[in-house]
UniProtKB/TrEMBL annotation:
Region (Disordered): 107-141, 221-250
Amino acid composition bias (Basic and acidic residues), ranges on this chain: 125-139
Name assigned to this protein: Uncharacterized protein
Biased composition (Basic residues): 237-250
Biased composition (Low complexity): 107-118
Length: 250
């Protein structure tokens, strides 16, 4: 005569309350036969088999009760977790080999579905990342640098120049610029673009040392309403040892 060892374990790690409290329901547990999962049990606030016809009304309790799933299907209305477990075990032992085959097939189908969902999720993430990259960098190739704003420029330039540069950046939609990195203006095939670094913000509202590159099409060259010209900026950089270029005519 074949014998079976029936045990249980929490369905979800860290949720192992068999009985619950006045405020929380008992946790879900799996039913194991010879260490193989065949189903599980959970607490119901009502009997779905009695009220809606879902599953088997094996226990007969109409309100708060225990339910189980497994070889029996959905078995409802039980007065205890043990009674709900027994409904599945009784069904399992009538044809253990047959139920094992069904469980194996069901697990294989579930794993295949999970693998497909994972592949679809990864493909979607790749698509989104490519789209984010296009939004940040554009589809065109980098071009020659025709102008640079040095790193830490605001630390040594006078306030008028700093404000003029800030006005130009804002007018061209160049936002969240990292002052620790230079801003380059590139002449690309069909546009003039500002290339700059933006700090990556972390959960506590502080910026990290990590940055990401962004590219924005600029509508105006880096001149200023206060009389600041690109050549004045270049002269300022030359005085501090930075490489300078002048803007070519378009």
């Amino acid at each position: 005569m074949r014998t079976f060892t029936v045990t249980r374990r929490p369905r979800y790690e860290g949720y192992d309350d068999l009985h619950g409290t006045a405020r929380t329901a008992p946790d879900e547990f799996l039913i194991l036969v010879d260490d193989a999962e065949i189903g599980g049990t959970y607490w119901c606030s009502y009997n779905p088999a009695a009220s809606a016809g879902w599953g088997w009304n094996d226990g007969g309790l109409p309100g708060e009760s225990w339910a189980s799933w497994g070889p029996r299907g959905l078995s409802c209305g039980h007065p205890s977790r043990e009674a709900a477990e027994h409904a599945q075990v009784r069904e399992y032992v009538t044809d253990p080999d047959g139920h094992d085959r069904q469980l194996t097939m069901a697990r294989a189908e579930q794993q295949a579905e999970q693998a497909q969902r994972q592949a679809e999720w990864e493909a979607e993430e790749e698509r989104r990342e490519a789209e984010r990259r296009r939004e940040r960098l554009g589809d065109d190739e980098p071009g020659p640098t025709v102008w640079k704003l040095p790193a830490y420029y605001a630390l040594y330039a006078d306030s008028g120049e700093v404000q003029a540069v800030a006005d130009w950046l804002e007018a061209n939609g160049v936002e969240d610029v990292s002052g620790r990195h230079e801003v380059r203006v590139e002449q690309r095939a069909t546009r003039r673009a500002a290339v700059y670094e933006v700090p990556i913000w972390v959960w506590n509202g502080r910026s990290s040392a990590t940055t990401e590159t962004r590219v924005v099409t600029i509508a105006t060259d880096p001149t200023a309403s206060r009389g600041l010209t690109p050549r004045q900026l270049l002269q300022k950089r030359d005085h501090h040892g930075h490489l300078s270029h002048s803007l070519p005519k378009r």
